[in-house]
Amino acid sequence: MRIIIILLLLTLNCNNLVGVDTNSILKQVDEAMYPDQITYTAKMIICRPEKEYKKLMRVYIKGYDEALVEFLEPPQERGLKILMRGDNVWMYLPSVEKVIRLTGKMKMMGGEFVHDDIMRVRLNLDYNAEFLQKEDNHYILQLKAKNKKVTYDMIKYWIRDDNYLPIKAEFYTIGGKLLKILTYSELREFSKRLMPSKFIMENAFTKDYKTTLDIISCDYSYIPDRLFTQEYLKKGL
Q1: How far apart are CA 232 and CA 116, in angstroms?
Q2: How far is residue 94's CA from residue 97's CA, in Å, rounded to a whole number?
Q3: Where are the domains of the chain?
Q4: pLDDT tens figures, 82-101
Q5: How many CB atoms lie under 10 A from the CB of residue 217?
Q6: What angle do CA 223, 225, 231 make, to 5 degrees?
């Protein structure tokens, strides 16, 4: 009788494992975290052992291919903008009135977030997911990159099972080395939409290096296309 019960439990566990639709989970994460249009204001704090660097920025994201980050503070960086269109990234430096080319994999303002982390995230488009396990109130997935364009070859991802919001992500190299750890916390409602308001990215190699992103306000209304142009990058509205 005991053997039958054990076999039954194993069968149920296997069925639960097979029955998890990882693609559906990733789609729901994308829908919860990355709407088609979003504008938010955030405080970025880059922590180093000797000092903290605080910045205030406004982020505009439209779809998967268009994003703009505009820095409001500190005063010496006011007007600095970063534009992403497809695989192209440019930064406008108001102090010298020049536009320079960047890449999505470069660190944003020297912190632990790269441009792609903030400006272009669509898990379901970029990764194939494998179900690892379910613990308490969350799923744990392993995401493998579909192509070499993405920043991370593999991500281990913790997701709440009730609202499909992320709890934690670990980012790995092709060789399997842990690069960074991102934690999501402090759930808040923005325009009746629930999402984490604090993002902390920690460097796995240098523990004292971390960058925090605190969302202050968030809006989901229409964003004009002219914001995602070279003209706006240089001149503004």
Answers
A1: 21
A2: 5
A3: 22-235
A4: 999 988 999 999 999 999 99
A5: 12
A6: 120
pLDDT at 178 over 60: yes
CA angle 117–27–172, rounded 5-degree value: 40
Within 8 A by CB and 6+ apart from 237, the residues are 226
- Return the C-alpha torsion angle 100, 103, 108, 110, nearest 10: -80
Token look-up 């999501």 returns: 184
Residue 8 identity (one-letter amino acid) = L
Phi-psi region for residue 108, left (φ > 0), alpha (ψ -120 to 50) or beta? beta
H/E stretch holding 197 reads strand 193-203
C-alpha–C-alpha distance, residues 101 and 69, integer Å: 15
Token pair 């605080």 is at which residue? 54
The pTM score is 0.88
Q: Which CATH number fits domain 22-235: 2.40.40.20, 3.40.50.720, 3.40.50.360, 2.50.20.10?
A: 2.50.20.10
